[in-house]
Amino acid sequence: PPKKKDIRDYNDADMARLLEQWEKDDDIEEGDLPEHKRPSAPIDFSKIDPGKPESILKLTKKGKTLMMFVTVSGNPTEKETEEITSLWQGSLFNANYDVQRFIVGSNRAIFMLRDGGYAWEIKDFLISQERCADVTLEGQVYPGKGADGNEKVKNKTKPEKAKKKKDTEKKSNGVKEDNRATNQREEL
């Protein structure tokens, strides 16, 4: 058994332990639990269309928080990105979609959805906007209406990995490259 300590001598760890003991016996309602501790909603497999993998994702993300990245086309300043994405957020709010927006770059924003089941409807709205270059959702990049011609590759997945693989193949065919410092000097 732990030693009895005067309450005035408690540190942060002691207070955290005390809080855990108090909460152990509390009846916490299901809605108050953190999302990772809530039981997931049962999936109705009759609604899944085997031809559309998005239908599976819609059902598995229902009721869970989900984030999507949105890129604004052109070369906007951070203020322009703020204004454009604010208009999009307002339109989504008027359509009864609960969306929070965070600006993460001069042309990039994160849209956070409380219910991921609506993510694909919101994605469809966003890619139809004139200034939307692309939307990244669950690792998939969907080109928007405002994408350049070279960006309009249908539903590309993680293009950075493909580029890295090509670069490593080129290096493996050519000169062997490693992290060691050598005395030899290579001529270019």
Question: What would you note in describing this structure?
Answer:
The protein is α+β, with helices and mostly antiparallel strands and 188 residues long. It has a domain at 55-146: ACT domain (Alpha-Beta Plaits, 2-Layer Sandwich), CATH 3.30.70. The protein contains 5 helices and 6 strands, in the order ααβαββαβββα. The protein has a 6-stranded antiparallel β-sheet, covered by helices on one side. A hairpin with a 4-residue loop joins strand 2 (99-103) and strand 3 (108-113). The radius of gyration is 25 Å and the shape is extended. Mean pLDDT is 76; it is low at 151-158. It is found in: Endoplasmic reticulum.
How are the elements arranged and paired?
Blueprint: H1 12-24, H2 53-61, E1 66-72, H3 78-94, E2 99-103, E3 108-113, H4 119-127, E4 132-137, E5 140-143, E6 156-157, H5 159-173
Antiparallel strand pairs: 1-3, 1-4, 2-3, 4-5, 5-6
Overview in brief:
This is LRP chaperone MESD. The chain is α+β, with helices and mostly antiparallel strands. Helix content is 34%, strand content 16%.
Keywords:
16% strand, alpha+beta
What is the number of strand segments?
6
Q: Which topology of the domain at 55-146 does CATH recognise?
A: Alpha-Beta Plaits
Please summarize the sheet with the most strands: 6 strands, antiparallel
Strand order of the largest sheet: 2-3-1-4-5-6
Mean pLDDT: 76
> What is the first-to-last residue Cα distance?
72 Å
Count of helical stretches: 5
Task: Label the structural class.
Answer: alpha+beta
CATH superfamily of the domain at 55-146: ACT domain
Low-confidence stretches: 151-158
CATH class of the domain at 55-146, named Alpha Beta
SSE string, helices as H and strands as E? HHEHEEHEEEH
* Helix share bin: 25-40%
Structural shape: extended
Give the percentage of residues in beta strands: 15-25%
What Rg, in angstroms, do the CA atoms define?
25 Å
Task: Please give the CATH architecture of the domain at 55-146.
Answer: 2-Layer Sandwich
Biased composition (Basic and acidic residues): 148-188
Keywords: Chaperone, Endoplasmic reticulum, Signal, Wnt signaling pathway
Pfam families: Mesd
GO molecular function, one term: low-density lipoprotein particle receptor binding
